[in-house]
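User: Need the bound-state model for pyridoxal-5'-phosphate:
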Amino acid sequence: MKYYSTNKKAPLATLHEAVVKGLAPDRGLYMPEVIKPLPQSFFDHIEDMSFQEIAFEVAKSFFGEDVEENALKKIVYDTLSFDVPAVKVEDDIYALELFHGPTLAFKDVGARFMARLLQYFVRQEGKEEVNVLVATSGDTGSAVANGFLGVDGIHVYVLYPKGKVSKIQESQFTTLGQNITALEVDGVFDDCQALVKNAFMDKELNDHMKLTSANSINVARFLPQAFYYFYAYAQMKKKGLADNLVVCVPSGNFGNICAGLFGWKAGLPIKRFIAANNANDIFYNYLKTGEYHPQPSKQTLANAMDVGDPSNFARIYDLFGGSHKAITDLISGATYSDDDIRKTLRDCYERTGYVLDPHGACGYQALKDGLKKGETGVFLETAHPAKFKEKVDAILGTDIAIPERLAAFMRGKKQMIEMPNDFQTFKQFLLKQ
Ligand SMILES: *Cc1c(COP(=O)(O)O)cnc(C)c1O
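Assistant: Bound-state model below.
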């Protein structure tokens, strides 16, 4: 399978090239040339298959031409070593709990898959060391760092905005050591993302070292996220609730929902999608007006969604041939302020006992506001509420338990390097490595 760039100016790439490059040379995002429909027989019996079995079928369809079958199976099965249950919150509304992985957020799936696929390609090549640069607004850094921890031949640099990620999030990528280096950038998430993007465009740097990205722009990270949309469908089908399925995705950089849309293109019978935003409402406004205007990101309670210029918008736009109508026919939007998020957390907890995290709260509320009669809604609960314990406890007056795998990070010793928001300094630092 060949991959083209959304900017259409770069040559076609193999999967191997697309994964190692991350971003295409024309600054576009790689897209698979073909999305093969999955056969009806697959959907007929999907409810009897395990998560890993379903994911392997989907992976073969996406990556089967480029990765040897047994290796792909091992990558998929190793990646999905935890469950993603669809849990009933109330009538017609289910939470797809994506937080049962090592760092308690959905990004574990893409990060673990990418680490294993990249290692597969690096081994094929023989020798060279690959350096992964990743900008994070919180959860990407921890998922990527943990996904790659101890993987031979790969060094990871995590760039995060100083003072803008929670203590728990920070501990998940600053305490690891080994092949993981944390860089604390004096700026916001978009500055971190800009440093990473500039590094990929810098010829001298790229001649000196092999760089790749593990942000959600990388095909090996965003596309495997499609697996759990199929599994969500399977679980709902088993309950007899899959006929009018609405999937709601709390969105920031739009990699997660984009993977769901690729699943839909491959034949997954989801009726429609809702993209739930916090106060960063760029996509919401695009749906309303047909115009896309990036904005500086605003800090909110749902900080992993504080993105003012969502990278994967380019993919969604391309997937639907730039048609605003095609996009709005399938996807609707919602936007919530911090006050809304607080109210939702409280309402949901009081009525149902379910503890949402601030990101999932946007997804849940968008279903409450947007679900029509006869539809069943699944929202992606993208992180465990304990990752945002201080905020959630303050809002709900609770003392929610911290899962042991999270507590273990917090006991570790933090190590990071301070980095000004300046590309030349960042570049000199990398050149010295
Ligand atoms: C990253 C993240 C999001 C946003 O996902 P995108 O793929 O960037 O749209 C939502 N919730 C949580 C908890 C996240 O970590």
